[in-house]
Amino acid sequence: MVDFVNRTEELSRLHSLYESEEAELAVIFGRRRLGKTALVKQSLEAYDDAVVYQAKQKTTDLQLQQFIDAASDTYPGVKRIREDWEDVLGYLAEEDAIIVLDEFPYLVEQDESLPSVLQAMFDHELDESAATFVLVGSSISMMEEAALLGNSPLYGRSSLKLDIRQLPFAAAMEFFDDAYTPAEQVLTWGVFGGVPYYLEEVSPGASLGENIQETILSRHGTLHDEPDYVLRMELREPTRYFSILEAIAGGSTSRNEIAGTTGIAYNQLSKYLKRLSRLRLVDQHVPITEQKERSKRSQYRIRDPFFRFWFHFVYGTGEQYDELGIDAYETLIEPELPDFVSRSFEDLSCSALRTLYPDHTITQTGQWWYDDHEIDVVGLTTAETLIVGECKFQQSPLGYDALSKLESHTAELRWTPDSGGDRTERYALFSRSGFKSSVEEAAAERDDLRLFTVGDVVTALDGSESAP
């Protein structure tokens, strides 16, 4: 297990700020468990003069006193300063310090003037300073109110804004040092996703089933109630968000379906879906040939693989897994898991498409659906080529019927190249368990058909793609 992976660009940008000869402000935000604190600590390895304060939900006086105590280890003179945020921060700025205020929203909860204090400092007092202020926060709404939105006090003052997201697939798999086969990597991604905290709980020496049993299904598992904790920390009225996520996980993906399943009025859904989208828990998808704003076929999907797994298999199960004990995974999860993970395999195959087709300039990847027709992987190119693919994450070889189905659905896909000319179609089949001889024979005879194993997809993703 590695201690820290990826985030190379973020580290480089932070180091540039630390080395600046001017006063700088960095704002680092993203939902919980994504490794924001670990990123800052890693960035400061070569800097022993930084002041790092992890805020807690305490009164302003206690917060300020504890901050002074933390700062005095490096800057003893700060203890002589009057206990006032403006004076204390001003003193450290004169010392050209690096000042990290982690969980900044907890400070603002107790002292709403703090963003305005920092604003005044940057506007009027830091012309001669080379200090760097780093504000870190998990409450996205409060970080927006304090520093990111147009009406926030610190809007326009930050030199760097880092929106921390899940690790991409290849980086996430670095946690396991090649301990898993390509298929096991996709299965692990389909359950745990790219959140560092979740990946740290996975033991490479144990099977996927054992990891799921011990960390998620067991009521004593470290991740058993994780989505519940995250949502209650991030949201003021979590009940409706739970209902929406449960509905989506259960197959209600359109707004009408979600409204009908949850009982939430259709015209009220938008604000909840937008909030879940800002937390990067839910995405709105439309067929690749349509515009999101105009499409009548949009679908909402749970973006975070772990949340998707939890709401599909765990939420609302009560004591069922406890009663089954160690048999819970084999009885309730394992039979469904390949089909469940197939969605993640489709997303990963889309992400790999540009690497798998290097001779084509692919401008857009995604899926397409219309009535009963659906295509798992679609790539639109700058030329006149349409790349389409069918994905199967099953435990048997892919047969010729999958190719016939793909060709039939492709005939219904309406896409005209920008040139206005006739399109050329290229077919791709993606399979976990290889291909039947009839498919391999067809691929050998046809120039427009290529076959990809799960190993091909994983290799293509190695350092080349963004998190799906």
UniProtKB/TrEMBL annotation:
GO terms for molecular function: ATP binding. It comes from the Archaea. The keyword Methyltransferase does not apply. Gene3D superfamilies: P-loop containing nucleotide triphosphate hydrolases (3.40.50.300), Winged helix-like DNA-binding domain superfamily/Winged helix DNA-binding domain (1.10.10.10). This is ATP-binding protein. The keyword ATP-binding applies. Residues 310-395 form the DUF234 domain. The lineage of its organism: Archaea, Methanobacteriati, Methanobacteriota, Stenosarchaea group, Halobacteria. Keywords: ATP-binding, Nucleotide-binding. Residues 4-202 form the ATPase domain. Pfam families: ATPase_2, DUF234. InterPro entries: ArsR-like_HTH, ATPase_dom, DUF234, P-loop_NTPase, WH-like_DNA-bd_sf, WH_DNA-bd_sf.
